[in-house]
Amino acid sequence: MTVPSDDILATIEADCDAAVGRAFVALAAEYFAQTRNRDSRVSTPHTPSGLAPRFDEPMPREGRSIDDVIARLRHDVLPDCNHLFHPRYVGHQVSAPLPAAVWMESLTAALNQSTAVFEMSPVGTVLEHRVVRWFCDLAGFPETASGTLTTGGTEATFTALLAARGAVMPDAWAGGVGGNPPVLLCGEHAHYAVSRAAGELGIGTRSVLPIRSRNFTMDTDALRAALQSLASEGRRILAVVATVGSTATGSIDDLETISQLCDAHNVWLHVDGAHGASALFSKRHKHRLRGIERARSIAWDPHKMMLLPLQAGLVLVRDERDLDSAFAQRAPYLFHDSQGERAWDQGTRSFLCSHRADVFKVWVALQRYGADFFGALYDHLCDVAHAMWEMIESRDDFVALHEPESNILCFRYVGDGSMNDEALDQLNRELRERYNVSGEGWITATSLGGRRVLRVTIMNPRTTIDDARAVLDGIAATA
Ligand SMILES: Cc1ncc(COP(=O)(O)O)c(C=O)c1O
Description:
Order of helices and strands: HHHHHHEHHEHEEEHEHEEEHHHEEHEEH
Largest sheet: 7 strands, mixed
Shape: globular
CATH architecture of the largest domain: 3-Layer(aba) Sandwich
Helix content: 40-55%
Number of helices: 16
Number of strands: 13
Bound molecules: pyridoxal-5'-phosphate
C-alpha cells in the first residue's frame, strides 16, 4: 500500500508539535530522576542473546503512534541500557552527560547543519572556529593554531598523524608511503588509536615503536635512547605520541621532557589528550600538562572529562597550514576558493564529508556552565578517585596498582592474602562479571603487568565518596 503524499506531510507536521518533543524530553528527565535511586539497577543482567528476542521482529511496514513508541522506549529500551547517571556506574570513560548539552542535542538534530562548509552551516562553521580558538588558547597555542571537531579521540589522533605524515612525507598523499616508511613512537600504554592510525596511514603497525613505561608513563630515558639510535641509523620519524590521561590508569606523560626531546630531534610531538587535556581547565591540575604548548598537535575529547554526550572530539594543530595540507582534497562543487581570505570550510581539514555540528553542544555547555565550572568538575572527579584510593590503602582486602593522577584507578581484590597470583587473576576476572550482573554497581577491568586488575573511572558528579566505598564493599561481598 502506498502512503498518500498528503499523509506523509501531515504525519511529519504532527510530530513537529512541542508536545511530541516533550514526550521524549520527559522520558529523559524520568531517566535522570530514576537513576538517583541507588537501589535501582545500574545495568542489565541479560546477555546479548537474552536481549535479542525482545527486538526480533520484522521491520514495521506501518508506523505507530508516538505514545506507542514512547511506551516501547520506556519498557523495552531504558531498563536494560547502562545507566551512566546511576551514582555507582564507575565503568568506562563515557560520561553522565551534562543536561544542558543533552537538551541541546535535539536542536542540533533539528537544525541539521553540516560544518563541513560555511554555506551549509553559516553560524555552526563560525562557532566551530570560535570554540577551537578557545581550546587553542587553553593549550597555550599561538595565533597560527587551528583545528576541527572530530567524532572523538581516535579520529583526532588519526587526523593529527595524517598531518604529521604530510609534513614528513609531502608526496605520500599522491604517491603512497613506499617501502621505507617512517617510525612512529609512543608509550607502551598508548591507546590503540595510535597503532590503528599507523595501519590506516599505510606506514604499517610494524612501524610503531613502543617505548617502555615507568610508573605507567612513558620512560623518557628510553625515549631519549630510541631517538638517538634512530637518528644514528638515519631513520625517519613520523611523530612521537605522548599520552595525557592514559586509558588504563589515567597517567600523564612528562610533556616537558618529551617536548624538549622532540624539539632537539625536530620531531612532531602529538599529545593524545583525549582523556586528560581537560585538566587545562583546572587550576589544581593544569601544571601536570606543562609542555603541551610545545606539541605540534593535540587530541582532546570534550565528550570525556567535560562530560558532554557522545560525540565531541577535537584535533588542534599548532600551525593551521599543517591541517590544511593533511587532506590534499579538492571538491570544487563543495569547497570554495577562499581567495586570500581565511578558509572557513572545515571539510578540507577533516576525514568526514558530512560533519555534524557537535560544536553547538560544546558552545552551549560553555555558555551555560562556564570554564571555571569545568575546572571544578575535573577537580571533583579526581578527588573522588583519590578518596577511593585512600580507602583501598587503608584496607587489607584490596591492593591499589597506583595513586591516581586523574579520575581513573586500578586495583585488585586480594582477600586475606592467601591466594597466588594466578588464582587472583581468575577471581578478579569473575568478580567483575558477577558484580556487574548484580546491578548494584558497574566497573571495568584491564591487564597491568600481565595481571588481571579491576578499574574504575569517575565520570559522574553524582558519585560520592560513600558510593565509592559502597562499590568496594559490594565487590568484597561478591568475592
Ligand atoms: C587516551 C585515549 N585516547 C583515545 C581514546 C579514544 O577516544 P574515542 O573513543 O573518543 O575515539 C581513548 C578512549 O578511551 C583514550 O582513553
